[in-house]
Design brief:
267 residues; mainly alpha; 10 helices; 81% helix
Length: 267
């Protein structure tokens, strides 16, 4: 049997099986719905209260996730941590070898980049070799690490919420199943007797996952964003220290680039 023919036979068999199941379900279904309580539509608030006491700490985790997420969105971005205008101004002062003006600018507009540069500029000493470059790099590295740790504390809160919320949901699952088994042990085996415990188990599990999944996503997102921003700041600060120390000559580099660009045009 060829492959296309085999696939067609398999599809027909699956359709026939589904048709048999549909027919059996139609035969088993009563002609009229049984008399009983009508289905009641529940609001989100009703579902929240039906989840039991553990829904409150899950709600606290959701509020914490939103609050920390907003804070990280405001604080952890390239424009906030290293404004382009400030970076350009400090770079100009570095080329002019004017650390005092650069330091005053960084102090007037504090951020991660400015605090790192301020720590490095405090170590400037033109009487030493390369304007005391080694001490500047060490001070900048220590300050940048402290700034990263300060922001990483907030990012780690997202990881805490992403871990605790599903665990609370799992605890709610256990307590709900215990409640249902207590009903069975008391001889109450009707579906309505077991619905409360099972509903609590499912609602707390769903609530924990609804909070935990976005929190985990935000944790990885802001952690990676912070690492990229810190890396860019480190490169910019190292570059400016090299310029101030005289180890990197920007004018000669620009002049060489212009000469190299003019030679093909002359030919």
């Amino acid at each position: 049997m060829s492959t296309p023919k085999y696939i067609r036979v398999l599809i027909l068999a699956v359709l026939a099986f589904l048709a048999v199941l549909a027919g059996a379900h139609a035969q088993d279904a009563p002609a009229t719905p049984p008399a009983g309580k009508p289905a009641v539509e529940k609001s989100l608030l009703d579902l929240f209260f039906a989840g039991g006491a553990l829904m409150w700490p899950i709600l606290a985790c959701s509020v914490g996730t939103i609050a920390v997420g907003v804070y990280c969105f405001i604080q952890i971005n390239q424009k906030k941590m290293m404004p382009k205008a400030q970076e350009s101004a400090v770079s100009q002062y570095m080329q002019q070898r004017d650390p005092n003006a650069a330091y005053q600018l960084c102090q007037s507009q504090p951020n991660v980049f400015a605090n790192t540069m301020s720590a490095a500029l405090l170590k400037v000493n033109f009487e030493r070799e390369l304007a005391n470059k080694l001490s500047m790099e060490q001070a900048a590295g220590e300050t940048l690490m402290q700034e990263e740790q300060r922001l990483m504390i907030w990012v780690n809160y997202l990881n805490i919420f992403a871990t605790i919320a599903p665990m609370l949901g799992l605890l709610g699952t256990v307590t709900g199943m215990i409640q249902s088994f207590d009903q069975l042990a008391a001889g109450r085996s009707e579906p309505s007797d077991l619905a409360g415990g099972i509903g609590e188990a499912m609602l707390t599990t769903a609530g924990g996952l609804i909070v935990g999944i976005p929190a985990m996503f935000l944790f990885f997102y802001f952690r990676n964003l912070l690492q990229v921003a810190v890396g860019n700041i480190q490169k910019a600060v190292t570059f400016m220290i090299d310029v101030l120390s005289g180890e990197l000559k920007l004018e000669s580099a620009v002049h060489s680039h212009e000469v190299a660009a003019e030679e093909p045009a002359a030919e």
